[in-house]
Amino acid sequence: MQFELKNVGLIDDATITLADLTIICGENNTGKTYVTYALYGFLRSWRQILPFEIEEVIQEALKATPTKLDLGHLFKGHINAYLSKIAKRYTGGLPRVFASNQNLFENASVKVSVPVELDFLDAQYQRAIKDATGNKTVASFRKAKGSPILEILVADVAVVETRYGLLDFIAEAIADIVFAPQLPDVFIASAERTGAAIFRKELDFARNRLMQELGRHDTKNLKNPFHLLEQMEAGYPWPVQDNVDFVRQLEDIDKQVSPLVELYPNLMGAFDSVIGGSYKVVKGKGLYYQPKGSGQPRLSMSESSSSVRALLDIGFYLRCRAKPGDLLIIDEPELNLHPVNQRALARLVAQLVNHGIRIFMTTHSDYIVKELNTLIMLHPSTSHHLAMRAKFKYAADEVMNPERVKLFMTCTKPQDRNGKGKRAKLNSLREATIHPDQGMEVDTFDTTIETMNKIQTEILFGGEL
């Protein structure tokens, strides 16, 4: 999947192609967050945008065949065209994604495409729509494996009369069958997650916005709930808002077991080794952190270390929600982690990728990049590499295939003005070279480390003895 961003915040012109593991590095204030939030916002909202782009096509097709749609005829070979339309409409909503001023995105452009359209004809689909009581089926949708036909069976004429209601359900079916294989479900751990963890009970954005709007309106205006909702625009970017909403419901989802953990239960043990314990929900008392080892007292979130709080949402996402095929976005995974824990987290990232979770992360951590380089270097299965894995205790599911990794660095590039006037510099992204035998070249770290080493060498050996 490829994203092209132009004039999105600090990013002037950048293209990024997602791999199973995608990493962005770069100095502060060079646009990493804008790329991350723009990607998250698109994957979070495409389902809501899609019905607007396919409504007319569905209506025309239903006129000819009211009980079936030929999805192959309507969409095969046209996925990128629809993604382009969705991205264009999404671009107009960027100020809401970033909770920012419209002027910041006045000339913004977001383009999304997939290099190869996945074949959706092999998918099998079945869904029944119930009435308000949940006892009566009013409509059902079915697509047989290998068939391009979506069958539409309506049992209640009222559903037919409510044409837009039926169109919504058809759009959902098309989203699941045609577009979902191209666009992963997404979860983000934003850089503000540590504060969300400790203040999660006090943070209720929906309630706070409602109370603010109630205080600002005349009594007569309160009779119109839609007018009130229009005024309740969030004051926080979507990733921050969604992080808070997620951590506020941890006690409610604690007993759920994610499809990922059902398949690979050992992954939670790997996660627990990163935080040195585990999260526990005690009935009637709330959420606690239980350090590893007998006799250790359990700690509330406010009593726990910042590293425990920084990984709270990731831990519960993996335990309760994650499924193979998801995209997990981690903004600065190294937050509050000692280098030992950063290495352990890098190994967990590799395990997640190898078990079907796609990961996108931004990082300033040379430790994480170096550990990932080690995992790339250990990928070959020669006798030497197998011996090195055994010697340094690396499991087979921790090593990384370099072909599944991409790293991008923020950079500046000259603007093409066709020879007219002075060439300005544009904030962009540059893909790093990845060597199977050495790992990723990350200039943004290497240059800084080399400068520091040079200074220390001069201090040690440059003066009189």
Q: What does the model show?
A:
By secondary structure, the protein is an alpha+beta fold. Helices cover 43% and strands 20% of the residues. It contains 19 helices and 18 strands. The strands form 5 sheets. Strands 9-13-14-3-15-16 form a 6-stranded mixed sheet, sandwiched between helices. The longest helix has 33 residues. The radius of gyration is 25 Å and the shape is globular. The termini are far apart.
Could you state the oligomeric state of the chains shown? Answer: single chain
Quickly count the helices: 19
- Describe the main β-sheet briefly: 6 strands, mixed
Distance between the termini: 59 Å
What fraction strand?
15-25%
What is the total tally of β strands?
18
Fraction of residues in helix: 40-55%
Q: Assign the structural class, choosing from mainly alpha, mainly beta, alpha/beta, alpha+beta, or little secondary structure.
A: alpha+beta
What integer is the average pLDDT? Answer: 89
Number of domain units: 3
Uncertain segments: none
Using only C-alpha atoms, the radius of gyration works out to 25 Å
> What would the principal axes of the Cα set say about the shape?
globular
- How would you write the strand order of the largest sheet? 9-13-14-3-15-16
Task: Offer a concise description of the structure.
The chain has helices at residues 32-64, 71-75, 79-91, 94-98, 157-161, 163-179, 193-198, 205-216, 225-231, 238-247, 250-253, 259-263, 266-275, 306-310, 312-320, 339-354, 366-377, 383-391, 443-461; strands at residues 2-8, 11-17, 21-25, 68-70, 109-113, 125-130, 137-143, 149-154, 186-189, 277-282, 286-291, 299-300, 327-331, 358-362, 405-414, 425-431, 434-435, 439-440.
